[in-house]
Amino acid sequence: MPPSSTIPTVPIESAALRGIRGSAIRDLLAVTEQPEVLSLAGGLPATDLIPSDRIADAAARTIGRPDALQYTTSRGVSLCRDVVANIEAVDPDRILLTHGSQQALSLLAQALVDPGDVVVVDDPVYVGALQAFQCVRAEIVALPITRNGTNVGELSRLLERGVRPRIVHTVSNFHNPSGVTASTETRTGLADLAETYGFWIVEDDPYGRLAFDGAPTSPIPGERTIRLGSASKTLAPALRVGWLNAPPAVVALVERLKQSADLCGSTLNQLMVADLLADTEWFDAHIDTIASAYSLRAHALTSALDDEFGDSVEYTSPTGGMFCWVRLPGVDTSELLSVALSYGVAFVPGSAFAVDADLGDSARLSFATLQPDALREAVRRLRTATDDVVRLRKSPDAR
Amino acid sequence: MPPSSTIPTVPIESAALRGIRGSAIRDLLAVTEQPEVLSLAGGLPATDLIPSDRIADAAARTIGRPDALQYTTSRGVSLCRDVVANIEAVDPDRILLTHGSQQALSLLAQALVDPGDVVVVDDPVYVGALQAFQCVRAEIVALPITRNGTNVGELSRLLERGVRPRIVHTVSNFHNPSGVTASTETRTGLADLAETYGFWIVEDDPYGRLAFDGAPTSPIPGERTIRLGSASKTLAPALRVGWLNAPPAVVALVERLKQSADLCGSTLNQLMVADLLADTEWFDAHIDTIASAYSLRAHALTSALDDEFGDSVEYTSPTGGMFCWVRLPGVDTSELLSVALSYGVAFVPGSAFAVDADLGDSARLSFATLQPDALREAVRRLRTATDDVVRLRKSPDAR
To answer: Which of A10, B85, B159, B170 makes the best surface tag, with the fewest CB within 10 Å?
Structure first.
């Protein structure tokens, strides 16, 4: 045997891993789990709105079914695929069930993207999507998002310059983190460009059912759109059931990758989701309950922002989903966060979602998990913290 | 906009995907699901031995717990990691929970292997492991497995020739598909080589608890061993809870990849597994029940092989797990399969598990899912099919 000195020293991790940005949000969540902190930081749905009794019923009913505890196919349980196909208004051969929609992002990135291929994302970006594309060493091009969703004008110019993305990713409804929803013009514009230039649109849509006015949202049209959905924000994250709705050729590619990723999803969890989603009368009422509660909470948050910050804050009024994106001109929100934590309030600084844009004065506030009174108190603490930061900036000697 | 003729035609799938072998076994399972077929083909545990009542209790108890339906951390629920750490007799910071142990294979491949890196596997191989390593474009080197497990002699010669694997993978106990168990000499030999040459041993161990004599198996020793475990073969596949037991530095790498792969596992399913595994008196008795039943089924299969095939079959007597590997000298088992299906019996031909070895006269027979009488009938049908194949080979004109 050779002496060990002849063995080359290699980095422990693969090259793929070295390209991934860690999630500042996830690291932050450890801090915000302290009970005295009012957290506007999380991306969790409200625990108090998770229908645990109805889920317990579904579990009890499902475990007794034959084969509920066995393996299923890599595409997922037929019954659940049929229910999802019905919701998506497509044929079941377009549906593959995933372990949360994050797995759909990860498998699509592996299926469709080679190292160096361009992937276009919004700036600010959903960090989970960024990580999935970084993991396959995509070249990320981030376009500043507009009030009408993905920046179709900038995308057109990029394409005209000869850039050829494989994928354009967006969270189309109640965008995480910016809160905006793609307009009809954005949707048709994206679909036209995708058709002309041959890229895939990945329409990531976990929040579409959570419109405050209850109005249904329209999917991005066209044959080049791959839609992702999830039960995490409407039923419960712990079910870990997401799905993709894609042309059958793409479904077949993702199916092969899912075999190697984890063989298949949970028969039990998928049957439970089928039971819950197929009970449309109950499910629609449950969605109304969540959307009404989130609407009240969003209103509590924004009126507190008006009351406490007045003209010194800019924000997009939420019309659904879980997030309000705010701008505090002149305030470094990363600096603000450490002061805010000392006052017992947490949020995610804009820089955590930035690719190229300077979002240092912005922040994502989640209104989903706190009750209105707690939201008002959180904003009061945020105001106090902001005052401290502004005062310190004006007279640094006071430090 | 340019005319569409200027858009390059690119293959739909990424290069990574083009390297993966489809699973012949999975494709086969579609055929064998017909009720009249007695299947020795599956890799499933016996449905009749899944403790569904006890699992229903665990579900009912768990859903009521606070946060049971929320997201968890990427490492998994602490309570479940603690229970697994106790079983593995290690510190919890070595444990990360995965979506079945297949996900542990897939994430380890991504974490530790760069394209072109050598990964050593057994021949025949567990196809799920092969797929995971092919997915990251590893250079696969397959060594013919011995009666004592991984071929340490061939591995030594490979290393002496200067080949430097990143990973050596094996199913150490009741190997899938070959049925063999690594001897003590194989284990210490592997550990010594790993220490000297700096590769990782991935000890894939889903079957270790299913020893027919109830004796505990010993893990492969050493600091370079990463152990994978699973609840799929002892509790239920649909729980989709597996784990890895690795040095904390490797756990940290896999954790980052798991964030991007699927954020986290199911809090609910992991809490249920914790409930079931922590009830050691019940769990040990349950393991005895499975192992006794599998032992009886294995005996029914091998005595039927003796009765029907006599000296024309060679096999390794199973001492645990779910599989019996047989050799029918002079018979092409792929050819046999199509005839066997017409007689209503299915199995997996050896070639489905072969990397470089010629295993065309071998087959994997699972004894887990059929009752003894059905196993005997399956072997009778297999004998009739074999007679047909042998007769056709001797007098091809009879076709």
So the answer is: A10
How many Å apart are CA B240 and CA B19, to the nearest integer?
A: 26
Which of B330, B322, B327, B328 minimizes the C-alpha distance to B369? B322
Residue A352 has pLDDT above 70, yes or no: yes
For A54-109, the pLDDT digits (tens) are: 999 999 999 989 899 999 999 999 999 999 999 999 999 999 999 999 999 999 99
Closest CA to B66 of B55, B52, B79, B75: B79
Mean pLDDT of B331-360: 95
Is A240 in contact with B262 (Cβ distance < 8 A)?
A: yes
Please say whether the beta carbons of B198 and A9 come within 8 A: no
CATH of B24-50+283-391 among 3.30.1300.10, 3.40.50.720, 3.90.1150.10, 1.10.1040.50: 3.90.1150.10
pLDDT given at position B27: 61
* CATH fold group of domain B65-279: Aspartate Aminotransferase; domain 2 (3.40.640)
A31 contact B CB<8A: no
* Backbone torsions φ then ψ of A138, nearest 5 degrees: -70, 155
Convert the pLDDT of each residue in A206-259 to its tens digit.
Answer: 999 999 999 988 999 999 999 999 999 999 999 999 999 999 999 999 999 999
| Inter-CA distances, B207 with B43, B44, B48, B127, B175, Å | 12, 12, 18, 16, 8
Scan for tokens 């051969």, then name that residue: A93
Asked if the model's pLDDT at residue A4 lies above 80, the reply is: no
**A80 touches A274 (CB < 8 A):** yes
**A317 pLDDT tier (thresholds 50, 70, 90):** very high
Å between B89 CA and nearest CA of chain A: 25
The Cα A60–Cα B271 span in angstroms is: 16
Residues of A in contact with B102 (CB under 8 A): 260-263
The answer to whether residues A120 and A169 touch, using CB atoms and an 8 Å cutoff, is yes
Is residue A89 helix, strand or coil? coil
The pLDDT tens digits of the residues spanning B253-274 come to 999 999 999 999 999 999 999 9
Strand residues in chain B grouped as ranges (E): 38-39, 95-98, 118-123, 139-144, 165-171, 200-204, 225-230, 242-245, 314-315, 323-327, 345-346, 348-349, 362-366
Pairing between β-strand A38-39 and β-strand A95-98 as defined by DSSP bridges: unpaired
pTM: 0.93
- Contact in structure between A71 and A378 (CB atoms under 8 Å): no
Q: Establish, for the pair of chains A and B, how many residue pairs have beta carbons separated by less than 8 Å.
A: 228
Q: What is the C-alpha separation between A243 and A223, in angstroms, rounded?
A: 18
pLDDT band for A204, please (50, 70, 90 cuts).
very high
Distance from the Cα of B292 to chain A's closest Cα (Å) equals 20
As a whole number of angstroms, the distance between CA A241 and CA B183 comes to: 41
Q: Which residues contact B68 (CB under 8 A, 6 or more apart)?
A: A52, A238, B62, B267, B268, B271
Let me know: does A367 contact A43? Beta carbons within 8 Å. Answer: no
Cβ–Cβ under 8 Å, residues B272 and B58? yes
Say if CB B21 and CB B130 are below 8 A apart: yes
Contact B16 A239 (CB under 8 A): no
Element (H, E) at A230: strand A225-230
Following DSSP, what letter does each residue of B108-158 receive, concatenated? HHHHH--TT-EEEEEES--HHHHHHHHHTT-EEEEEE-BTTBS-HHHHHHH
Query: Cβ contact (<8 Å) for B60 and A64?
Result: no
Q: Which sequence spans correspond to the domains of chain A? A: 24-50+283-391, 65-279
Q: Are B336 and B386 in contact (CB under 8 A)?
A: yes
List Cα–Cα distances, A75 to A255, A267, A334, B42, B263, in angstroms: 6, 11, 42, 18, 20
CA–CA min distance B306, chain A (Å): 31
